[in-house]
Design brief:
By secondary structure, this protein is mainly alpha-helical. The protein is built from 6 helices and no strands.
Length: 105
Amino acid sequence: MEDRQVILMMTVVVSAAAALATGYLLGQLRPWQRAGDWAADQVRHSTGAWVQGGAGRQAVVVLVHVVTAPRTSWRIMRAPATTTEPTAPVRDPDWVANRSRQERE
């Protein structure tokens, strides 16, 4: 009976030490924050290979962003879509005088 208690006690001590070591390591590496920063950069700049790589990659980016930054993701989803209209061409009244030599010929 005493051997079982010693084994149980050692199991608890080793498990606690492993949990502390894992927590310390994760605190130093901060994988949650790194994944969130990566997803935010992909969403914000939208030029990365993950955003332009197809529906599967986009789903991964969105899922990571929603999991790591739920408030920001909710704010982005609730914001109305902005429409960007092309700028109207500016007409130069002196276009004849300002044209290049290739355009004259």
